[in-house]
Amino acid sequence: MDKLTELERARLRWRARRGLLENDLIITKFLDRYESSLTNEDVKSLTQLFEMDDNNLLDLLLARSEPEGDYDTPNINRLIGLMRAE
C-alpha cells in the first residue's frame, strides 16, 4: 500500500472542499479517519468522485442514489460505503 506524502494529502483535502456544507462535513470526517490508510487507487477514485457536482455527490453520500456509469466501480462503491458509515 502506497502512503500519501504531505503534499498529496494537502491536495486531496483541497480537492475535497465542496460548495455544500453537508458534503464538506461527510468528506472531512471520512478523511480524518481514513486519510493515513488511503492508497493511490483510493486517491484516484476520490478525485473522480470530487469531479461530480455537489448535489449528485450528496445524493450518493446520503444513499439517495447509487453510483452509475464510470462511477460504478468496486473501489468507488467501497469508499462511498465508508463515507456513508461515518
Automatic annotation (TrEMBL):
Keywords: Chaperone, Cytoplasm
Keyword Cytoplasm among UniProt keywords: yes
A Pfam family hit: Sdh5
Primary subcellular site in the record, as a coarse category: cytoplasm
Subcellular location: Cytoplasm
Family of this protein: Belongs to the SdhE FAD assembly factor family.
Record PANTHER family: FAD ASSEMBLY FACTOR SDHE
Record-given protein name: FAD assembly factor SdhE
Organism the protein comes from: Advenella mandrilli
